[in-house]
Amino acid sequence: MATITAPYEVRRLHLGAKHALRRAAFILINTMLVVSALFPFYWILATSMKTTNELNAGTTGIFPAHLTFQAYHQIFSELDFAQPLLNSVIVATSTMIVTVVLATFASYALARLDIRGRGVVLGFVLLAGFFPILAMVGPLFLVYRHIGLLNSYPGLVFAYLIYTLPLSVWLLTNYFRQIPKELDEAAMVDGASRLQVLRRVIAPVAAPSIFTAGIISFILAWNDFTFALCFESNPHYYTAPLAIVNLGQSQFQIFYNQIDAAVVVVTLPVALIVLVAQRRIMSGLTAGAIK
Amino acid sequence: MRLQGSEDTNSDEGRSLGDAAETIRTKQLPGAGGSTRSLRRWASTDRHIGYLFVAPAVVALLAVTAFPLIYNIWNSFHTVQLANPSAGHGFSGLQNYKELFNEPGFTIDFVHTLFFTVVSVAIEIVIGLGIAIVISKAFRGRGLVRAAILVPWAVPTVVSAMLWKTMVDPQSGFVNYLLKTFHLPGSGITWSAETWTSWAVIIVSDAWKTIPLVAIILLAGLQVIPADVYEAAQVDGAGAWRRFRSITLPLLKPALMVALIFRTLGAFLVFDVVYILTGGGPGSSTETLGYLDWKAFLVDTDFGYGGAISISLIVVSLIIAFGYTRLFKPST
Q1: CB within 8 Å of chain A, chain B residues 229-258
Q2: Measuring CA to CA, which residue among B271, B295, B311 is closest to residue B105?
Q3: pLDDT tens for residues B112-133?
Q4: Are A177 and A261 within one domain?
Q5: Alpha-carbon gap, residue A164 to A128, rounded angstroms
Q6: Would the CB atoms of B313 and A132 count as touching at under 8 Å?
Q7: Are residues A9 and A100 in the same domain?
């Protein structure tokens, strides 16, 4: 008996130790991932709460010596950061709404209605997602200049559709296809038109997906820098990202506490969205990618 | 009296406005009603309703892709210099392209762009794949790890750029402090002063922001692979590396292709992170083709020249995408 159990015990102990080691390594890797993703955020948060004097003295530790909201106060009271923030909210929200409406109609047609050239349209939408946005800048600039859309909100919202529409159309088309056709048919037997079916039946059923398309669109519009840089030369129309680049710099010094205070303010909404809707965003981002 | 008078004029105006409205109504309603009715009749089949539903999105996308493409082609064969009206708007043949390809800056920026693309895509795919494998496992706190990793993707480029600019600042940054604390070389570096360190900051910043997306795409690919394939291989005695090479990589091909196309095109067209972090400097040592295109459009306002750069960018993008689809053709 003893000769049989002893090797078994030894082997189990050995496996146990190996298992524990692998587990520790796994935890270590995950900790490193989280730290490398989040530590830079801690650093800008800490920097934004330092005084200019402390910044000039150089880094001496991981924690600020005195916490102060001075930089936050300055960017709102002296540097008028509220206006660009408001511009960003307006533009990103508008983009979100326009995208969701256009994509919902288009996706319903692509998923349900027997239109000719469906494959061509879907292929074009996918390809459009890869169109180099810098190649858009020149032609749109000339047109906007002509019709007065430079330094305006609609000009930005329209350009942002290149970020948001391809992804949203793919995401919603895939989702609508999974909804049983019987749902449409039942409603139409009851005398509903296609528009009513979409509004009263499909849209409510697909609400989670439409919501996902909406928040991803909001994030993508919120994050733009290039179009804002090219189309908005009047500081009154700066979006928040564009304002940050022009903020906190004097001829002699860069005020990192002010810049980073603005960076924290711009990061907060998207960080909150991600924390709340992480699963939806992840599935949304891959909806069209893997087939 | 005055009150009375003003009332009179008001009612006069009211009447004339009403008359005008009536004229419009009587004149236009039949026509308008007719077209609405015929549109109604046309849109009575599902197919026609489908066209109406799909049209706004398609028209919007055509307006931001096909139109700029055609306009760029047109401009690239013409003189379109806003800052130099005396040059006229005539047909200039291949002048813009000749100028572009003879310009040494174009070749140099092309090399910069290729360098950046190869290095950052390699880093992003390798680390992204590693992260995807780690977060594909089931463990407690996985949701938290996934959310933490997703945050860098979700923040604006301005944030990821400014954040690394702060991190490497010689005075108020963290990186130099860390190097100094551990008595490592390089604690006195001014990162923005040298070409190679400037590139390093651009690449780190870009990788930090885009690795999450790569990881998410690859994670979705991993989740499609059935678990019993791994179990069978393990029963047959295949080690971890063997399983990775013979199962994971081949079955991950479609997801890898998507991630590679996404990131290669993204890196090749890089602009904003360069603009924010270095402004192409020091000198013009971190200028990319995207930066060159922006400069042509917005600084020199030469839309013919910028058009020529845009068309070159689009052509190379197509070659890259086509190359990948050939490379990953599902023959194996």
Answers
A1: 254-255, 258
A2: B295
A3: 999 999 999 999 999 999 999 9
A4: yes
A5: 11
A6: yes
A7: no
Do A254 and A128 reside in the same domain of the chain? yes
Residue B177 to residue A274, Cβ atoms within 8 A: no
Judge whether B214 and B121 are in contact, CB under 8 Å: no
Sign of the alpha-carbon torsion through A140, B269, B154, A48: negative
Same domain, A107 and A174: yes
A173 and A114 inside one domain: yes
Q: Is residue A50 part of a domain?
A: no
Which residues contact residue A90 at a Cβ distance below 8 angstroms, ignoring those fewer than 6 apart?
Answer: A153
Residue B148 bridge partners (DSSP): none
Give the tokens for residue B91.
Answer: 């047909």
pLDDT category of residue B188 using cuts at 50, 70 and 90 = confident
> Does A20 contact B at CB distance below 8 Å?
no
One domain, residues A85 and A187 = yes
CATH of residue A240's domain is 1.10.3720.10
Residues A92 and A23 in one domain: no
How confident is the model over B286-315, as pLDDT tens digits? 999 999 999 999 999 999 999 999 999 999
Q: Read off the pLDDT of each residue in B310-323 and give the average, rounded to a whole number.
A: 93
Nearest C-alpha neighbor of A257 from the set A117, A5, A15, A69: A69
In a domain, A6, yes or no: yes
Contact B181, A59 (CB under 8 A): no
Instruction: Please give the structure tokens belonging to residue A89.
Output: 């909210």
Q: Using an 8 Å Cβ cutoff, are B191 and B168 in contact?
A: yes
The pTM of this model reads 0.87
Residue A28, domain extent: 2-37
Q: Measured between CB atoms, does B162 come within 8 Å of chain A?
A: yes
Judge if ipTM > 0.90: no
Is A65 inside any structural domain?
A: no
Same domain membership, residue A114 and residue A165 = yes
For residue B325, give the amino acid letter.
T
Tally of domains within chain A = 2
